[in-house]
Design goal:
The protein is built from five helices and five strands. The chain has 136 residues and is of the alpha/beta class. It has a single domain (31-126), classed as Rhodanese-like domain (Oxidized Rhodanese, domain 1, 3-Layer(aba) Sandwich), CATH 3.40.250.10. The longest helix is centred in the first third of the chain and has 14 residues, at 17-30. The N and C termini lie far apart (61 Å).
Length: 136
């Protein structure tokens, strides 16, 4: 049985290779996977802050060791708690959660060097990397 090739709707024009290149360059400069972040932590990178933008309860239930927790709703009021000298890597729950994308957008809009951890805490845990839990 022959396979049909998917076609784009007429209203969607295919992007040029140059446009796709710019898109993927921007995407790669703004996203990190859990293995990338773990390598940075293991190397002792001092110029990064990992920002958990989940709720306090989510943070207490389990978070990446050494991160800062600023729930997304509090971020605009707490920007002064962060420095523009560091790359700030945001994360939230999983691939369906866009809080880290929203947080990275807010940060970048205010002049911070922001990135996001793809897959959030779920992908971090699925990779077998350690988490910490807070008792209080």
């Amino acid at each position: 049985m022959p396979t049909q090739t998917a076609r784009l709707p007429r209203a969607v024009k295919p992007a040029s290779p140059a446009k796709l290149k710019r898109y993927f360059e921007a995407k790669l400069s703004a996203e990190l996977g859990p293995h990338n972040v773990k390598r940075l932590l293991d190397a002792g990178a001092k110029d990064i802050v990992i920002l958990d933008v989940r709720t306090r309860d989510g943070y207490r239930a389990g978070h990446i060791p050494g991160v800062v927790n600023i729930p997304f709703e509090e971020l605009p009021a707490r920007l002064r708690d962060l420095t523009k000298q560091n790359d700030i890597i945001t994360y939230c729950w999983d691939t369906a959660c866009i809080l880290c994308t929203k947080a990275a957008y807010v940060l970048a809009s205010k002049g911070f060097r922001a990135k996001e951890l793809l897959g959030g805490i779920k992908e971090w845990q699925d990779a077998g990397f350690p988490i910490e839990k807070d008792a209080h």
